[in-house]
Amino acid sequence: MDITFSEEKGILIVSISGRIDALTAPELEKAIVSRIEEGAIKMLFDLQELEYISSAGLRVFLFVAKRLNTLKGRVVFCSLQKLIEDVFRVSGFYSLFSIYEERQEAMSSF
Amino acid sequence: MLVRCHRQFNADLSLLTEMLGFISGFVLGCGFSPDKVKTIELASEEAIVNVINYAYKGLSGSEVSIQCMFERPTLTVEIIDSGEAFNPLDAPDPDISDNLEDRKIGGLGISFIKRLVDEVYYRREGDKNILSLVLRLDNDVANV
Q: Which residue among A24, A33, A55, B140 is least crowded, i.e. fewest CB within 10 A of its CB?
């Protein structure tokens, strides 16, 4: 798993590639939490390069979203591959989050 | 013709990548599409993590056995542990509330297992829990 952070118009773009599983999820959580502590409250997760996610990874997203919610921030997702889309769907993430096909569309939703 | 492959691992989360690699290597060799391979990896990860964290409660010295079987068109991956009798399929479905504040963080793993593979069975054999994850090659649209 690789994580790339970039910032655009006050939005933290988090691009994650590879796999988020029970081994790598704690790393992801740590990396994101430290950005929240630095003040990031608007986050866009670009998952174009993400190939695999298990429930351990979904837990991180839920945790981050809840935390940002209490800070009046927001989390959106974009560019999901087919398998990730399936996993999000069976987990009810589509009714919980704003999920976009393209990054631009996601950016303009803020 | 039945092809069977079996391996035993220490019940240690740091071996997860190796365990999933063993499974995906076998499944890929059966002719499943890369997406189906990831699906079975996902269901297997949830089962294995459950065993390590709950059946063994992080106890060292325990083992997880993984048995992969393929008899065209049926693939079965069995995750075997010798913890206390526990049928994960009895767990209630998770809350998938669409309200972020109410939404619980845990409980998604078992529902993945139930919803992503074609069939799933639990049985107790002697002092072992056996969870069987079944995928069928003819349900793999990429192969039709």
A: A33
Q: Which of B 84-113 lie inside 8 A of A, CB atoms?
A: 96-98, 100-101, 103, 105-106, 108-109, 111-112
d(CA B128, CA A101) in angstroms, rounded, equals 45
**What homologous superfamily does CATH list for B3-143?**
Histidine kinase-like ATPase, C-terminal domain (3.30.565.10)
* B100 to A96: CB separation less than 8 angstroms, yes or no: yes
Q: pLDDT digits over A21-39, tens only?
A: 999 999 999 999 999 999 9
Say how far apart CA A99 and CA B58 lie, in whole Å.
Answer: 36
For the domain made up of A2-107, the CATH class stated in words is alpha beta
For residue B55, what are the contacts with CB-CB under 8 A and spacing of at least 6?
B81, B83, B84, B86, B129
Kindly report, residue by residue over A45-83, the tens digit of the pLDDT: 999 999 999 999 999 999 999 999 999 999 999 999 999
The distance of B1 to chain A (nearest Cα, Å) reads 30
CB contact, 8 Å: B2 with chain A? no
Tell me the Ramachandran region of residue A13: left when phi exceeds 0, alpha when psi lies from -120 to 50, beta otherwise: beta
